[in-house]
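User: Can you help me understand a structure? I only have the sequence.
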Amino acid sequence: MNAFNGFYDDDEVLMAKEVLFDWASKIDGTPRVKTRKESATRRRLECEDILGLVEFLDKKKIELPTFVALKLNRVPKMSPSDVDTVNLAETVADLKRQVSVLATQLQQVTHLITSVNVAAPHVQERAAESAVNWSEGAQNAITDEVMNTATKSVTSFAEMMHATDQATSSQWFPVFKKKPQPARRIIGSNRCSETGIKTAGQRSWHIFVGRLDPSTTADDMTQFLQGSNINVIECTLLSKKETWQEKFAAFKIVLDVHDKDRVFDEVMWPYGADVRDWIFTSRK
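Assistant: Let's start by predicting it. Here is the structure, written out as tokens:
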């Protein structure tokens, strides 16, 4: 969802939504197309509509048409974590196939043992014992493969003990110290005036916003943030002291402390905007 929403622009997302809903309009029960109004969260809502339709078609077991990439440079890149997830899914699917094959073979051996009714009792016992040993060996092989896949980058306790046995008796495997737990901290939320104590006025948070169009004003920035339900206490256009700063508009913005996390939603800001916490420097 983040790659989809953060990579494509508004026109591309809207076009993809129209094409997919137009194709699915012939299917009974297809959700109604929602027309989204211009807002800071419009693109995210359009992406949610597309994913909702895909989920609906998947539950209906309807096969989607084949889509191709017209421009390869407009295909979002996968992060390393996504690649790891794909590899893990392929490994799990391969293990499922192996378990299915082993289960089939075990069923065949069991059927063979059952069909040997005329054999001597000692022959039946040996056949049954061989089948049990084979089943246990197959299960152990599957367990070993799963453990090797899950811990191929981690040194196990058994490996450390084996290394200890190979060394002299005076050597031990290293002991890793636990990191200290951070000190607990809360921010009070009781707004009742009868608590007996009170804070020193309204708490605020300062941020820096830059790389905006040079025609952007402080009023424009204030209206933009208030439209996203962010309480703006003060908004100041920073002076342009260098030549390169004439190409951009930058602001120092004071917010209500309760909005300090919501203002860092990257979907809310236009592409390329630079939003950071304000860094205070000491005055000598």
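Now, to help you interpret it: The CA atoms of residues 4 and 283 lie 45 Å apart. Residues 80-115 form the longest helix (36 residues). Let me know which part you'd like to focus on.
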